[in-house]
Amino acid sequence: MIDDLYSARILRLAAEMPHAGRLAAPGGTGERVAKLCGSRAVVDVVLNGDRIADFAQEVKACALGQAAAGVLGQSVIGATVDELEQARDAMVAMLKSGGDGPVGRFEGLRALKQVADYPARHASTLVAVEATLDAVREAQRKTSRTPIAGAA
After folding, report:
1. Which of 9, 23, 40, 128 is buried deepest, with most CB atoms within 10 A?
2. Fold of domain 2-143
3. How do residues 66-105 score in pLDDT, each as one tens digit?
4. 40-48 and 28-33 as β-strands: parallel, antiparallel, unpaired?
5. How far is CA 45 from each of CA 55, 78, 94, 97, 133, rounded to the nearest angstrom?
6. How far is CA 141 from each of CA 10, 12, 43, 100, 129, rounded to the nearest angstrom?
7. Could you give the CA distance from residue 116 to residue 126 in angstroms, rounded to a whole number?
8. What is the domain partition of the chain in residue ranges?
């Protein structure tokens, strides 16, 4: 039953996490912790307009959280903020209400569809995506407060 959840594909994604670590000069940083299990993700981003130009993640999570972070790391650079938000919304719908899951660049997150049957695992599966959106929001706030050159 639960052994089916940890398929070879999930374990491979968990082991292959691109962009592990932290950025030296992030535009924004986000952190999320899944309270039930303690899975944690700290994500740094740099935005170029509405696109993610640079990304790093430090994830300490179960194999499901690590797998989601692996897919995220493969796909996030170059993504727009809207694409990331749509992927998160589709992932939540997939886990909680039988949705098909993300499409496009984040379609790999569909590998986690069977997590829907394990509500206690939902938060750990979402931790890296939510931390990334928090980092994006912080970067956007910082950018909107940046004074315009030459403005008095």
Report:
1. 128
2. Sufe protein. Chain: A (3.90.1010)
3. 999 999 999 999 999 999 999 999 999 999 999 999 999 9
4. antiparallel
5. 4, 11, 26, 30, 9
6. 35, 36, 16, 32, 19
7. 12
8. 2-143
